[in-house]
């Protein structure tokens, strides 16, 4: 069965802390996406990965194909990073399967 | 460059009614995806259109349908609305077909069924 699991479900941290959000999936994939959803619902695509590592500003996404695992890291976290982060996977069937999301709260 | 647009932003309907939601993709994008995010639940894939054809659909009943027009804009229709259809409906577009292409999301339409 094609499944996506994220952890943790909720994460609260102090401003400046290094944040890691994890995503595991059950079978081989063709691509993995990290999305950010702010209160109010708007979704922004952060990264699309099929291998290796990508970096954009303070955000870093890595994927280990053999271990079927991806991580999203945020360095020097800031209150504006507070959002729900969602992992989504394409299992090769041309539609995305979503994790349940990680609600991140950064306290000033 | 204009992003993905959706209309309306909010909508209130009564159970049993029908609703049409609209989505305009980014210029040059041929694929349009529809997703449902019900309150307290995660995002679920609804429909995927590419080049005017329905390419895939999620595990939703037939009363959820849609179409894609020659200009690549899309409509999502929901007939015989039920209370559990209350959700945020998100549209996304991509320049290439399928889930292996980066998707750009619209702001969503929040549907409330009473």
Short key terms for the protein model shown above:
heterodimer, A: mainly beta, five-stranded antiparallel beta sheet, B: mainly beta, four-stranded antiparallel beta sheet, 52% strand
Notes on the structure:
The complex is a heterodimer of chains A (108) and B (114). Chain A is 0% helix and 59% strand. Chain A is built from no helices and eleven strands. In chain A, strands 2, 4, 5, 9, 10 and 11 form a six-stranded mixed sheet that branches. Chain A has a five-stranded antiparallel sheet with strand order 1-3-8-7-6, with no helix packed on it. Chain A starts with a strand and ends with a strand. Chain B is mainly β and 114 residues long. Chain B contains no helices and eleven strands. Chain B has strands at residues 5-7, 10-13, 19-24, 31-38, 43-50, 53-57, 64-68, 74-78, 87-94, 104-105, 109-113. In chain B, the strands form two sheets. In chain B, strands 2, 4, 5, 6, 9, 10 and 11 form a seven-stranded mixed sheet that branches. In chain B, strands 1-3-8-7 form a four-stranded antiparallel sheet, with no helix packed on it. Chain A binds chain B through residues 30-31, 33, 35, 41-45, 48, 50, 86, 88, 90, 93-101, and chain B through 33, 35, 37, 42-45, 48, 55-56, 58, 88, 90, 92, 97-105, 107-108, 110.
